Amino acid sequence: MGKLDITQKSFFENAEHFADLMNGVYFGGKPVLKAEELTSVNSVLQKADEEVALEKLRDVVKMQTKDGRVFALYVLENQYRIDYSMLVRIMVEESLEYENQVKAIRKRNKEKYRNVLSPDEYLYGFRKRDRLYPIHTLVLYWGDKEWDAIDSLRELTTISVDDANMEQCVAALVPDYRIRVYDLNKVEDFSDFRTTLRTLFEFYSKRKDVKELKEYMKRNEPEIRKLDKDSRFLLATLIKEKRLVIELQKQEEQKEKEEEGVCKAIDDMIEEGRMEGIIQGKVENVVELLEEVGQLSESLKKRISEETNLENLSKWLKLAAKSKTIADFEAAM
Predict the structure, then answer these.
(1) What is the CA radius of gyration of the chain?
(2) Residues 6 or more apart whose Cβ sits within 8 Å of residue 6
(3) What does each C-alpha distance from 78 to 38, 75, 138, 264 come to in angstroms?
(4) Residue 282 in contact with residue 310, Cβ under 8 Å?
(5) What is the pTM for the complete model shown?
(6) Per-residue model confidence as pLDDT tens digits over 253-274
(7) 317/314 Cα distance (integer angstroms)
(8) CA distances (Å), 148 to each of 24, 142, 145, 186, 234, in order?
(9) Which of 244, 248, 254, 259 has the most neighbouring CB atoms within 10 Å?
């Protein structure tokens, strides 16, 4: 598991951060989830029988309990790359989780109610009155490109027939199962978040533009000073800024200098005009887009990888997205 995965999971294992994320995304900031109602659940899902053996590892799973009973299960999947099969992946995970609920109910029924079950209920171990609690899975997407994977099962399936009426009728039979993806590239207003998550998301959303990031720093220095340790480490890891991580580690050893140090570390990093994470991310994005249309020569790949000017990289990123061939890109550089 990479440092980024570990840092993200550690951050959202905090019940306050997790509740704020779900409330902000699902409920417009209303405190539907409360930190004290949440308990961590094993993130590993397993199914093993004579036919199949499966194991699924999720990022963070929290159970919401109200009035002594389970109200809902919330699952967080952090995603840094676009997975075009994400919908099926989530569907399998949620199906396994629902199956686990059914197994637990069957076990309880066999132990407590076996003498009062109807023949059908006894056969399958599930009573007419039994109910499952809902599972809500959120995909939190941190990548640089906008998420463009399909989020609807109906849209993901294809019916290959020439008869348009038949195609429409058959397509309507497919359940409109959907997943929820929160793409940080597409959000401009983070006011629905109540904890330091708001500042973290706002800061991260400015990462591609040094000038905009500097202006944000000046306007929001008090909020940045208030970032807790986990928020600072997550931010430093997300923007791949080693110097900031080192500074934060020093602050942990010298608590009294913590607030002054983090702002200075970020400000120095920006003033130097080179944020390692931004540069690296743009280089990777340019190369990735170009590799989709053709094979890069070693000389071109070298030139792109050695570029440190953010303006050039931003221009090349737009060119790479529009170019139909490598030659088109090189001609416009």
Answers:
(1) 24
(2) none
(3) 19, 10, 8, 29
(4) yes
(5) 0.75
(6) 555 455 555 566 666 655 554 4
(7) 5
(8) 22, 13, 9, 11, 25
(9) 244
